[in-house]
Amino acid sequence: MLPHEIIALDNTQSEILSLLSNYQHIIVSMANGEPDYILNLIDEHPEAFTNLTIHQMLELKDRRYIQGEYPNIRYVSYFLSKHARKSFLNGTCDLIPNHFHQMPRLLEKRCPNPLVISQASPMDEEGYFSLGTSGDYTAHFIGKAPFVLQVNNHVPKTHGKNRIHISQVAGFIQYDQSLQELPNAPICDIDQQIAEYVAERIENGSTLQVGIGGIPNAVVSLLKDHRDLGIHTEMLTDGVYDLATNGVITGTKKHTHPEKIIATFAFGTQRLYDFMNNNKQIEILPVNQVNDPRVIAKEDNMVAINATTEIDFYGQCASETVAGKYYSSTGGQTDFGSGVRFAKNGKGFICLYSAAKNDTISRIKPILSPASVVTTSKNDVDYIVTEYGIAQLQGKSIFARTKALIDIAHPKFRDELTYEAKKMGFWI
Question: Start and end of every Acetyl-CoA hydrolase/transferase N-terminal domain (predicted)?
Fold first, then answer.
């Protein structure tokens, strides 16, 4: 039997709406932590709210409140997915700049007395739910704010610091639905070429942060003969599953969380979710622990692999805009870029195709496109990788950086880039 002060929201929609309507700020878990049933209910009954603000990163589904259709509900994004991107560009949702590891602190400042909503696995015999694929900023609020959960039998039971006791839950509803899957991105020839430059610089015993896309997938595919790799990453993907099941990941050389795979959220295919279920090797932790540069720096051989859309001669990487148009946000790129910079033997790789639009536009530029946003600064950049080579910029002068970047630019643009470098006085 549930304690009397806890509402078991397993009967009517009116009970759910009654609870939600008591709050002006609702924090929503990201990716598959998103409680689809509860959010649909908000979208279908906007009249239940007087002045509601919904805070979220990386939404999975489009909703009318995201597109600003209700004047009494405002959507605030901290990392644009495709639906919030459309809304932001139309001026109907807010985008708050942030470092991912600072999200819990930022939400505490912006959200007085919030309610947190998330998906969760079924309660165990000890009275605990698991937030499953999610830790992110949500897990930080366990015990600090009330939760309403969508309990879903498809959510894997995971370990770490994303377990929440029934006594900390204001209400829940049982609603089962399959988790959304992120298909593995195909690996093209350019991805493979870039990956080879990165993989040959990853040593046995390194700890990795890897993301999504063809390049990370290609890098992972080249590490099957490595030994004793560790994982400390914001996002857990199918690539980690491949390495773990092949015995490549042991984590025995890690200084923090030895022998554990550490992440703050997971997004992949069903085989990843099955692998995570009740797997004590994997720990899902709050993002202010996983992405804290001070924690990342404790791993001597930390390797971070990220991407950008363009880079200039200074080494500034614009990773959240495309040709000056906002596309996503900072995410964890600067968290891990800073962390590896302070790690004893840290290496930070930022990868990009040398050209765009059928090789008509160079992604290496004298100056960034107008209105571009710098994600990784010139002071934090380390290795830049294209299909034409790798350039280590850390510790190099502007002149040396310029030459190194031109050397890995697409050949058809090298003469033009050299000409521009001489005009700028960046060529000796």
Answer: 16-177
Exposure of 162 in the CB half-sphere (CA atoms within 13 A) = 37
pTM exceeding 0.70:
yes
Distance CA 117, CA 101 (A): 20
Query: Can you tell me the distance from the alpha carbon of 17 to that of 129, in angstroms, rounded to the nearest whole number?
Result: 22
Helix axes 411-423, 398-407, angle to 10 degrees: 160
- The secondary element (H helix, E strand) that includes residue 197 is helix 189-199
**Residues carrying an active site annotation:** 234
Q: Are 392 and 383 in contact (CB under 8 A)?
A: yes
* Rg of the chain (C-alpha set): 22
Please give the sequence-ordered ranges of beta strands (E in DSSP) within 78-168, or none if there are none: 94-95, 115-120, 128-130, 147-151, 159-160, 163-165
pLDDT tens readout for residues 203-255: 999 999 987 888 988 999 999 999 999 999 999 999 888 899 889 999 999 99
CA angle 138, 235, 79 (to 5 degrees): 60
